[in-house]
Write a structure and sequence with these properties.
The chain is of the alpha/beta class. The chain folds into 2 domains: 230 residues, Phosphoenolpyruvate-binding domains (TIM Barrel), CATH 3.20.20.60; 30 residues, no CATH class. It contains 12 helices and 8 strands. Strands 7-6-5-4-3-2-1-8 form an 8-stranded parallel sheet. α9 links the parallel β6 and β7. The N and C termini lie far apart (58 Å). The structure holds 3-methyl-2-oxobutanoic acid. 3-methyl-2-oxobutanoic acid (KIV) binds next to loops.
Length: 281
């Protein structure tokens, strides 16, 4: 049996220069496979809004949706460190609300930590959740929940001023009590400065090499069709394979090739005779 990572393991990995690997998962089966593959962590990202529900962004995602999917992932990966992603609206209105929602994630879904987006502006929220005895991961750089305000899903920190603001955001969330920070869609030079500046693990998505990487499951599998960010490496084209499977299945049924003998239950001949007799035929 695999031993679940703790914050101390993750911290040690940073010290030893060992990169942590994680990905998103939204369902039981994927979580089971990801655990078998030896993922260090799993994120039940609010990206489920796009990957599972077909929204055009993450803003409509609710706490209830995140909880349902986190429960399924927890069941599929009991020995993996699971991160619950606080959806838009779960921590913006007031700090008490944010703490209540972080508690829900732990009590109802059994997550190991929560992640939330934003820098200095969410420092108070991070402090309150950490003071409540829960682990918090920060998320700075491109923060998809505010993609509207940012003018779309665009790389961040490409000017000296904006890079400096992200570096300050990362420091603010660390100082507020975050045990790790995720940086998204920023130049690798800026990521390296943040990883060198902070004593806690700094993970990246679209941000170059650092203490570890996260990728969105449906992106690396090649299933998500709406768009592919520059930083995504597709390890398969499962979307195309799925399409072929669905077409073959439909053709088999329409041509009478399925179900065939191999895929049907057999009735012992004497029972069939008895049944015919019962029915008088
Ligand atoms: O929701 C999500 O999947 C994320 C990724 C950008 C890591 O936060």
């Amino acid at each position: 049996m695999k031993k679940k990572r703790t914050r101390f393991d993750l911290q040690r990995m940073k010290a030893e220069g060992k990169r942590a690997v994680w990905m998103t998962a939204y369902d039981f089966t994927t979580a089971q496979l990801a655990e078998q593959a030896g993922m260090d962590m799993l994120l039940v990202g609010d990206s489920l809004g796009m990957a599972v529900y077909g929204y055009s962004g993450t803003v409509p995602v609710t706490m209830d949706q995140c909880i349902y999917h986190s429960e399924a992932v927890r069941r599929g990966a009991p020995d993996t460190f699971v991160i619950g992603d606080m959806p838009f609206g779960a921590y913006q209105a007031d700090v008490a609300d944010a703490v209540r929602n972080a508690v829900r994630f732990h009590k109802e879904a059994g997550v190991d930590c929560i992640k939330l987006e934003g820098g200095q502006r969410v420092a108070k929220v991070i402090r309150a959740i950490a003071d409540g005895g829960m682990l918090v991961m920060g998320h700075v750089g491109l923060t998809p929940q505010s993609s509207g305000a940012m003018g779309g899903f665009r790389a961040q920190g490409r000017t000296a001023e904006s890079a400096q603001a992200i570096i300050e955001d990362a420091r603010a969330v660390y100082q507020a009590g975050a045990f790790a920070v995720l940086v998204e869609a920023i130049p690798p030079e800026v990521t390296r400065m943040i990883a060198a500046d902070l004593p806690v693990p700094v993970y990246g998505i679209g941000a170059g090499d650092c203490d570890g990487q996260v990728m969105i499951c449906s992106d690396i599998l090649g299933i998500f069709q709406a768009f592919t960010p520059k930083f995504v490496k597709k390890y398969a084209e499962l979307g195309k394979e799925m399409l072929d499977v669905f077409k073959s299945y439909a053709a088999d049924v329409r041509q009478g090739r399925f179900p065939d003998d191999v895929h049907t239950y057999k009735m012992p001949p004497e029972e069939l005779d008895k049944l015919k007799a019962l029915r008088g035929s």
